[in-house]
Amino acid sequence: MIGHNNSQSNKGAALLIAVLMSAVVLVVGVGVYQRTYKEVVFGSMWKQTQVAFGAADSGLECAVYSELHGTQNCFGFAITWPPPAQGEDLLIGSTCVNVRMTKTSGAGGMVTIEARGYDDACGSTNPRRVERGLKISWQNP
After folding, report:
1. Mean per-residue pLDDT for 104-112?
2. Cα-Cα-Cα-Cα dihedral of 120, 123, 128, 132, to 10°?
3. C-alpha span between 33 and 97 (Å, rounded)
4. In 5, 19, 60, 72, which residue has its Cα 20 to 30 A from 54's Cα atom?
């Protein structure tokens, strides 16, 4: 009888060790998964940041060129200068840029153009929408 109780307690210890090892492996696996997921999201956000910055840069260059040369066309869009106070949205490829310009008149007045680029289409409600902005100012001669 004594030997029978010994083998019963050994079986319980082996089961306990197996359950503990499974728990440790599961915790490590979940940790690796979370880390990998965060890295993938970060990598995607970096790409979206570059897209938004490119849109802002394109919008700013377009606005500066239009202001200096008096053209009314930017990337195939007819634009109104100066844009409305809230800014003018331009669709550049699949991205959107909002361009705002303020001017003070007369000699020595300032021209300020601000462009905010987005990584998706104008009017998007994407909760992960990325925005990057650029601003330039100069003094009228």
Report:
1. 78
2. 60
3. 36
4. 72
